[in-house]
Amino acid sequence: MEINVIVLAAGMGNRMQHHQNKQFIQLAGYPILYHTLLVFQKMKAIHNIFLVVRNDEMSYVEKNILTLNDFSKVKKMVKGGNERPDSVHNALKSIEGEGLVLIHDGARPFIKEKDILKLIQVALKCNAAVLGVPVKDTIKSVDTHHLVIKTPDRRLLWAVQTPQAFDLNLIKQAYEKRYACSTDFWDDAMLIEELMNHDVKMVEGSYDNIKITTPSDLAYGEWIAKHQTDD
Ligand SMILES: Nc1ccn([C@@H]2O[C@H](COP(=O)(O)OP(=O)(O)OP(=O)(O)O)[C@@H](O)[C@H]2O)c(=O)n1
Ligand SMILES: C[C@](O)(CO)[C@H](O)COP(=O)(O)O
C-alpha cells in the first residue's frame, strides 16, 4: 500500500507580514519547510512526498531547502494554485495509482511521527481521518453583528489540524465535486463530510502541532523546538 504525502507550501503567508514566504523563515536554525519535510522523509511508512510550491519559488526551494538533506522521497514539485484547495487539487492530479494520501500544511513543522502513525492506522481502516485536539477555550457562535447565537457543548469540540489522511480515490472524487459545495470549506475533510456522505474519524494529536501563521507563532515555535519531546 503506497502512502503519499502532499506538503503544501504555496501560500502567500500574508498574516505573517514577512518579506519572505513564511515557510522559508528560519526556526531552530533551519527553514520551517525543512523541518516539516524531514519528519516525513525519515518515516519508513511514507513512500512519496509531493511538494506544492509557488511557480516563482520552485528554484529557490530546490537550491535552498532540498539540498539541506536527503529529500529523495520528494517525487515531484507541484505548482501551487491561488487558494489552498487549488494547491491540493493540483497535487492530487499528479498522484497516480491507489493508496492513502496525507495532506499536510508545510507551516506545521512540529508534527510528530507517532501522531502520523496513529492517523495512518485509523485511515487505513476507515478511509478518512484527521488529527485534532480537544478545544481548551469555550467556543461561541456569533452572527455578523457579533451577537452570540449559541455556545456549543465544549466536550464535543475539537480543533482540527493536519495531516488529514484519505483514501486517494475518495479524496480525488471529492475534489472533482468541490465546485458543487455551496459553502466555503476550511479543510480537506469537510469535502468528504459534505460531498461524499462518508464518515471522517477524529484522531487525537498534540497541542504542539501548531500552524505557523502570525509573528507570535515564531516565538512560540522556537520554544516548542527547544522543549518538544516524542510523547
Ligand atoms: N494557495 C495556497 C494557500 C496556502 N497553501 C498552504 O497551505 C498551508 C496552510 O495555509 P495558511 O497557513 O493559511 O498559509 P497562507 O495561505 O500562506 O497564509 P495567509 O492566509 O496568512 O496568507 C500553508 O502551508 C500554505 O503554504 C498553499 O499551498 N497554497
Ligand atoms: C487545514 C487547516 O490547517 C486545519 O486547521 C486550516 O483549516 C487551514 O486554514 P488556513 O486558513 O489555510 O490557515
From TrEMBL:
Enzyme Commission number: 2.7.7.60
Site location (Transition state stabilizer): R15, K22
Positions bearing the site annotation: Positions MEP for the nucleophilic attack: R154, K211
Known catalytic reactions: 2-C-methyl-D-erythritol 4-phosphate + CTP + H(+) = 4-CDP-2-C-methyl-D-erythritol + diphosphate
GO biological process: isopentenyl diphosphate biosynthetic process, methylerythritol 4-phosphate pathway
Keyword rRNA processing: no
Pathway: Isoprenoid biosynthesis; isopentenyl diphosphate biosynthesis via DXP pathway; isopentenyl diphosphate from 1-deoxy-D-xylulose 5-phosphate: step 2/6
Signal peptide annotation: none
Transferase found in the keyword field: yes
Record key words, sorted: Isoprene biosynthesis, Nucleotidyltransferase, Transferase
GO terms of molecular function: 2-C-methyl-D-erythritol 4-phosphate cytidylyltransferase activity
Family statement: Belongs to the IspD/TarI cytidylyltransferase family. IspD subfamily.
NCBIfam families according to UniProt: ispD
Chain's role: Catalyzes the formation of 4-diphosphocytidyl-2-C-methyl-D-erythritol from CTP and 2-C-methyl-D-erythritol 4-phosphate (MEP).
Protein name per the record: 2-C-methyl-D-erythritol 4-phosphate cytidylyltransferase
Taxonomic source organism: Petrocella atlantisensis
